[in-house]
Amino acid sequence: MSKNLVIVESPAKAKTIQKYLGKDFDVKSSFGHIRDLPKKGMGIDLATFSPDYEVSADKKKLVTELKAAVKKAEMVWLASDEDREGEAIAWHLADELKLKPENRKRIVFHEITKNAILKAIENPRDIDQNLVNAQQARRVLDRIVGFEMSPVLWKKVKPGLSAGRVQSVAVRLIVEREKEIREFVPKASFKLDAVFLNKTEQEIAAKLKKDFEKEEDAEKFLELAKTTEFKVLNVETKPGTRSASAPFTTSTLQQEASSRLGYNVTNTMRLAQRLYEEGHITYMRTDSVNLSQEAIEGAKRQIIGEYGAEYSSPRNYTTKSASAQEAHEAIRPTDFSVKTIGDAQLSKLYQLIYRRTLASQMANAKIEKTVIEIGNAKLPHNFEAQGEVIIFDGFLKAYGIVKTEEDDEENNEKLLPKVSVGEVLDYKKIIATEKFTRPSARYTEAGLVRKLEELGIGRPSTYAPTIQTIQNREYVDKREIEPQTREVVKMSLTKDKIKKEVLEEKFGGDKNKFVPTDTGEVVSDFLTDNFKEILDYGFTARVEESFDEIANGAQKWKEMMTDFYSKFHPRIEDVEENADRATGDRLLGLDPKTGKNVHARIGRFGAMIQIGETDDEEKPVFASLMSGQNIATITLGEALELFKLPFDLNEFDGQPVSVGVGRFGPYVKWGETFISIPKGEDPLSVDQKRAEEIINEKKKADAPIATYKGEPVTKGSGRFGPFIKYKDIFINVPKRYNFDNLSQSDINELIDAKLEKEANRYIQQWEKEKISIENGRWGPFVKFGKAMFKIPKKKDDIKYDAEELKDVSLDEVKKWIADQDPKAFAEKKKPAAKKATTKKATTTKKAVAKKK
User: Fold this and answer.
1) CA triplet 455, 456, 461: central angle to 5 degrees?
2) pLDDT (tens digit per residue) in 328-381
3) 482: buried, middle or exposed (CB in 10 Å: 19+, 13-18, 0-12)?
4) Which residues are catalytic?
5) C-alpha to C-alpha distance for 589 and 611, rounded to whole angstroms
6) pTM of the model
């Protein structure tokens, strides 16, 4: 066994580092954190804010292996990443593996190259407790916010919701942008574009320097222009420069990978992580634009060798962000002689980083800008043509130019022909087009990252998980917004004739942009109304600054937590006690048939329409909203259309057929089978012929692909991916199988494995009580209904083994369940009638309170 044990976070990094260290070093991976707050329960002592860390069940075997490796090593090198998360990983390892200060060393490096690793070994340090405390403060504060705010949402909005400090602010940004778009009133104006011809028939595209608010004013201008002799009034040529952008930080890499490569934030970070671990780039979680002197020299050599000395302009950049960690470097290649790498997806991102870093060390591009003014004294306004010529391409040679989504599509500056002042020009055409102002654009992933960074919310490591979380929680999504249509007026002047036409244009459509869901909007409004400070952008940024101060040793983390919690917890109690329920209720009008109120609101299963009131003698009726419909925008007419569902069609193959909409969207029901209607198709348009087509498609998809022991086997694709079905058993098909061409031996193998697993699943089962003791991935557990419970240890603090669990009585198991959930059995004993009484009593109580 080696004298030296190096522990890193990931197997890929371990593999790369092992290449650089000799046989005296053994490199192992901790696979991230080996311990964390418990998954169930808060896991924090709220009196002292001491976290109750535990080794997760899936890491216990690994920890045992690491402990064994530690015993055989003379020195343990903790080589996790150089950020706060990495420091905390090192601290947890040192604590859990009982490493003494004299037998451990902490090393950090921002690139995985031989030089960097050997240099780190030569310059070890101890664990930086300030960085660890900053990570603990973030983890503990976010756990408290989530654990205390989420139950308020369950009570006041609907069960199963969650809140988080950064995620809730991100959702708020998206919700506020959507409201801004809804409330936006477009203003129309007429913009004039012209194409002029010089003596040699060369075209000059120009724009009028003034827009007209009224159609008649634009038309009057065209009438004047009919008989006007246009001249070149002025030609101005001025030199200019363009500078390269700084090297990449985490957020600018995410933004540029989105605009240039179309990668989402999560994908960008996954690929960047691989590039770092394989030694191609420096550490990818950074908010610094600094480059080391070694990198500046390396870039200079590459630029002079590839482009020439005139293209080289070495420089260092300073970070504008006050919170940036200047000790870190920007994201850059570790070796400038490597231009490309094998994997296509990795190589695209690598080349983007390579070119951006190289460009940052190159000379400015020199341009010559030309502005031509065209007009006549008779006209109230003149035209202007703009163009530019690149005199020296400089950094553009490596990086080029890319347009952002904010750039005006119409500002395409082109090369202009040479003209002189006083030269007469003919107009080829002058077009006046009605244009409408546009609201702010919805956020893309890159745009949201840019906004969060601008507000000082979150840090490089938090952007990707935050964006993933708000989508997973179904607070926002990227559904397609269908465009609307409006009329626009276009007037064209050609050959002394004005032609007027009314055209149709589409507007308001969107793809791949964030849109809040109804639930996301209601939750965001509730939190903003009741937890103004937590959802305040300034407050969230100030919390980040406090974490920075803890990292610098300027603040104690438990003091910061005490101050925060002393204000936060009383607010939680107040909201829980006094805030009204939030349903996003919107009164749409009256139902013409019954005269009852029609409401759009959030219900137990999401957005819905309700006709009637909950306290009416006759129960209200409900209908789910369809995809693309929204509580805030649905009209009374659209809402009433939903009550045409479900409707019956004629029988097909001897079974009844109906069309409806449910929790998972619109469907065709055939007998007892529910078949989803394809996305974007209006269920109200489904007639008998279309329903039969959908049923036949389903029958074809569900046709047996094989048999197993004489029983049919079918296949399909569900929520958890591709599967095969045998009897009532669903079996997931792993990626290693060719799902489109499963052989009989593949099917036998999959079903055999599943049946064997099912046979070993139950240690004991009480079907009537819906209670069982089962073998799980991380050991035996108790299942009651759909809920899972831990099996406590025996009196001697030793775990039960499977054989002992076969003899445990039902009463003992019920006691285990009750100890973990006191209401588990009590709830079932409540008679249904009592619920109505309780409800009435609550209503009366509220009414009395209002009278007071």
Assistant:
1) 125
2) 789 999 999 999 888 888 999 999 999 999 999 999 999 999 999 999 999 999
3) exposed
4) 283
5) 10
6) 0.76
